[in-house]
């Protein structure tokens, strides 16, 4: 059984063909067509848990055209027609107007919900585009030469890539001293912390030097070295050992490592 909403907003029940065939057969087994015996409609309605009016309609249609008349005629031509979207129309829209479904739907002249339904059906797909480096011919050659330098000959005359166990990767990492928005969990009687900077757009940052290399595994496949050598600050804060005209003794100051 399926519920359909009509133009007046009321829900109408629709029954599958096999169920209507079963109901019509139950009526025929209890009567002598074309005469309908008294009480058969009510008996069949109680048996299938349907309104008597529905059973009467099934009987009338069956008498008019048999089982063929009971078949649903709306299967091939019912419901809202599917709005197709041309792929060429999407291609003709400028890329800057295809960043959101709302912008694309406006350019195509369709509803956003319609466009979203076609997207879920796989008519088109979403692509996240990363900006690439502009490489010159010399840059490309240098990259190829670097890859070739990683090839080494083996004892049997073959070639293999350098395992790079003796290579160390060094990179600087920037960290903000604090976040612009930070969430805390406080007790009901606890005072809210106050954080302040001169400008929210220029929060102070600190730099660290990170050093890693390739991980090491033993013969059993267990990691014996997790590739992390360490992360080291460029500056350290320590108390002054002697007083000067810039600071008294014991006051903390930044010192380059």
Q: How does this model look, in words?
A:
- The chain has 257 residues and is α+β, with helices and mostly antiparallel strands.
- The chain folds into three domains: 2-70; 87-120, no CATH class; 137-256, no CATH class.
- The protein is built from eight helices and eleven strands.
- The chain has helices spanning 17-28, 40-48, 52-65, 67-70, 87-92, 101-108, 112-120, 137-149, and strands at residues 2-5, 11-14, 151-153, 159-161, 168-176, 205-213, 216-217, 223-225, 228-233, 235-239, 252-256.
- The strands form five sheets. Strands 5-6-9 form a three-stranded antiparallel sheet, with no helix packed on it. It has a two-stranded antiparallel ribbon with strand order 1-2.
- Strand 1 (2-5) and strand 2 (11-14) form a beta hairpin.
- Helix 1 (17-28) packs across helix 3 (52-65).
- The protein is elongated and about 120 Å long.
- The mean pLDDT is 87.
Which structural category fits the helices and strands?
A: alpha+beta
Name the average pLDDT.
87
Number of strands: 11
Radius of gyration using CA atoms only: 39 Å
Q: Order of helices and strands, N to C?
A: EEHHHHHHHHEEEEEEEEE
Instruction: Please report the distance between the alpha carbons of the first and last residues.
Output: 78 Å
Report strand %: 15-25%
Biggest sheet architecture:
3 strands, antiparallel
Number of domains: 3
Spatial sequence of strands, sheet with the most strands: 5-6-9
Percent range of helical residues: 25-40%
The outline comes out as elongated
Number of alpha- plus pi-helical segments: 8
Unreliable stretches: none
């Amino acid at each position: 059984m399926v519920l359909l909403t009509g133009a007046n907003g009321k829900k109408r029940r629709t029954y599958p063909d096999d169920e209507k065939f079963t109901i019509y057969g139950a009526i025929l087994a209890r009567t002598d067509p074309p005469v309908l015996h008294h009480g058969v409609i009510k008996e069949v309605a109680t048996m299938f848990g349907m309104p008597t009016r529905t059973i009467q309609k099934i009987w009338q249609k069956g008498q008019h055209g048999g089982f063929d008349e009971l078949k649903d005629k709306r299967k091939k031509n019912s419901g809202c027609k599917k709005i197709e979207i041309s792929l060429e129309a999407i291609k003709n829209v400028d890329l800057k107007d295809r960043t959101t479904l709302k912008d694309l739907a406006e350019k195509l002249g369709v509803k956003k919900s319609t466009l979203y339904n076609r997207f879920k059906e796989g008519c088109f797909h979403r692509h996240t585009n990363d900006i690439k480096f502009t490489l010159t011919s010399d840059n490309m050659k240098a990259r190829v030469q670097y890859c070739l330098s990683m090839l080494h000959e083996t004892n049997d005359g073959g070639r293999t890539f350098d395992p790079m166990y003796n290579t160390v990767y060094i990179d600087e990492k920037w960290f903000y001293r604090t976040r612009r928005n930070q969430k805390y969990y406080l007790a009901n009687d606890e005072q809210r912390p106050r954080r302040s900077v001169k400008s929210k757009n220029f929060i102070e940052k600190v730099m660290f030097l990170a050093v890693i290399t390739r991980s090491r595994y033993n013969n059993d496949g267990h990691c014996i070295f997790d590739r992390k050598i360490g992360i080291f600050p460029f500056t350290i804060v320590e108390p002054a050992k002697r007083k000067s005209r810039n600071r008294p003794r014991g006051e903390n100051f930044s010192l380059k490592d």
